[in-house]
Amino acid sequence: MTAEAAQETGVDPLRAAPPTATEERPLRIALLSYKGNPFCGGQGVYVRHLSRELARLGHTVEVIGAQPYPVLDAEEGVTLTELPSLDLYRQPDPFRTPRREEYRDWIDALEVSTMWTGGFPEPLTFSLRARRHLAARPGQFDVVHDNQTLGYGLLGLEKLGFPLVTTIHHPITVDRQLELDAAEGWKRRFSVRRWYGFTRMQKRVARRLPSVLTVSGSSRREIVEDLGVRPDRIHVVPIGADTALFSPDPAVPETPGRIVTTSSADVPLKGLVHLIEALAKVRTENPGAHLVVVGTRPQEGPVAATMARHGLEDAVEFVKGISDAELVDLVRGAQIACVPSLYEGFSLPAAEAMATGTPLVATTGGAIPEVAGVDGETCLAVPPGDADALAAALNRLLGDADLRRRLGAAGRERVLRRFTWEQAARGTVERYRQVIGASARTAAHR
Q: CA-CA distance, 184 to 202, in Å (whole number)?
C-alpha cells in the first residue's frame, strides 16, 4: 500500500495487526441497527446485505435491532434479536403518546419525554438498551458492529469484553445544516435544531470510538471535519449493489420517457425538488417524459408545491413498499435513472441503477462521483441544486439511444469491478480482525 493510499483510507500498514488464531476461525458478530426499514433510507439495506454476505463467508451474524425491524436473509443463517422501542414514529400514528401499560422502565420515559420536547430520542435510547442487552451476554460475541447509532450507551463496551466497530455512513450534521439552510422563519429553525439535538451526542461519542468504518473518501473527510474524529481511526470500506439481483434483463421492455429516482423523504438533502423543476423543463422538449419516485408522495411541502405549480401531479408517480423484484424491474424499464441529491455519503441508488445497466444522471454532491464515475464515461454528471443542468442532461440522454446503451454498459462494469456486497463484507471482516487483535493486546497490558 502506498503512503497516499494509506492516508486516504486511514489504514497504517506499519501498524496492522500480525496474523493470529482469530484470523483462522469464523467470527461471532453482533450487528446493531436502531432503525432498519429496508424501504426507507440506506441503513436497512446496509444491514440486510452486509449481514447476508458475512454469513456467506462463514461467520455467525446476529442482528440486534429496533423498529422498524430489518428484513434479513434467514436462509443464510442471519438471526434477528428484537430490542423494541416504544415505536413512537410508526405509521399511521407518528408522534403517538403511549398507553400507561406500555412503559417498562426509565429508558421508555426518556424516549417519550424527548419526543414530547421536539427531539429525536432513538439513537440514545437504543444504545442504552443495547448496552444493557450485551452486558447480560458476556463472551457471546467476538465483535460488536454498530450501524450509525453513536449513542452514549456504546461507550465502555470494550471494558465489558466487546471490541467495537462503528459504521458512519455520513455525519448527520450534514443533513442538519442543509435543513437549517432551507428553513424559513425562526420557529422552523428552532424546530430543526431541537430535532437534530442528538448530533451533539453523536459528535462526543464519535471522538471516543476506537474504530470507525465509512463508505467513501468524501464521508471520511466529512467525519474528520464535522465530528472531529482522528483520521487514523477512520477506515473506508465501500458498500455495493446486489449485482445478482440488480442486473440487466433484455426481456424487460424499456418504457419511453420513464425517469426513475429514489427519495426516502421530502428533505432538501435528496434534491427531489430540483428534479421536479427539471422535469417541467424537460417536458417542453420531451412531452412524454415522466418521473417515477421510489418513496412516499408528500401531501405538502416543497415537492408537493413544486408539482402543483407546474401542473405535474399526473407526470410524477410515487411507489412505496414494493418488492425487490418489482424495484429491479422498475429500474430496468426506465430510460434514465437519476440521483439529484445535494449530498450523499455513498449513494446506493446510483450503484443499483448502474448494476442494472440503466444509464445514470447524477449530481456531484458528496461521494456520488466516487460511485458514479467520470462524466460522459459512466454517467452524466451535473452540479447539485442546478435544475437547468439536470434538464439538459436528461434531454440529452432521452434523445440519444446509443449514449444510453454505452453509459449503461460502462456503469454495470464499474459496479462489478468496485462495488459489490461480497467485497464490502471481506473488507469489513478485515477490520473486525484488526480491532479484535488490538483489543486483546490492550486487555493483556491491563
A: 26
The pLDDT of 391-417, averaged and rounded, is 97
Task: Please give the pLDDT value at position 403.
Answer: 98
How many Å apart are CA 173 and CA 229, to the nearest integer? Answer: 14
CB 269 within 8 A of CB 342: yes
Whether the pLDDT of residue 32 is over 90: the answer is yes
Question: Using one digit for the tens of pLDDT, what is the confidence trace for 354-369?
Answer: 999 999 999 999 999 9
pLDDT tens digits for range 118-137: 999 999 999 999 999 999 99
138, containing H or E segment: none
Amino acid type, 38: P
Q: For 92-116, what is the mean pLDDT?
A: 95
Amino acid at 332: R
What integer is the mean pLDDT of 333-344?
96
**Do the domains at 3-240+421-444 and 258-418 have one common CATH topology?**
yes
Secondary structure percentages of the chain, helix, strand, coil, to 5: 50, 15, 40
Give the bridge partners for 239, in sequence order: none
Cα–Cα distance for residue pair 392/289, rounded to 1 Å: 13
- For the chain, count helices (H), then strands (E): 16, 13
Task: List the beta bridge partners of residue 236.
Answer: 214
CA distances from 221 to 29, 164, 218 (A): 28, 21, 5
Look-up of cell digits 454469513: 55
Q: Which amino acid is at 427?
A: G
Report d(CA 205, CA 154) in Å as an integer. 8
**Gyration radius (Cα) of the chain, Å:** 22
Q: What is the pLDDT of residue 40?
A: 55
For the chain, the structural domain boundaries read: 3-240+421-444, 258-418
- Whether CATH 3.30.830.10 fits 3-240+421-444: no
Mean pLDDT of the chain: 91
Rounded to an integer, what distance in angstroms lies between the CA atom of residue 76 and that of residue 72? Answer: 9
* pLDDT attached to residue 442: 77
Question: Strands, E, within 328-429: which ranges?
Answer: 336-339, 360-363, 380-382
Architecture of domain 258-418: 3-Layer(aba) Sandwich (3.40)
pLDDT at 8: 41
DSSP summary character for residue 399: T
C-alpha cell at 396: 440529452
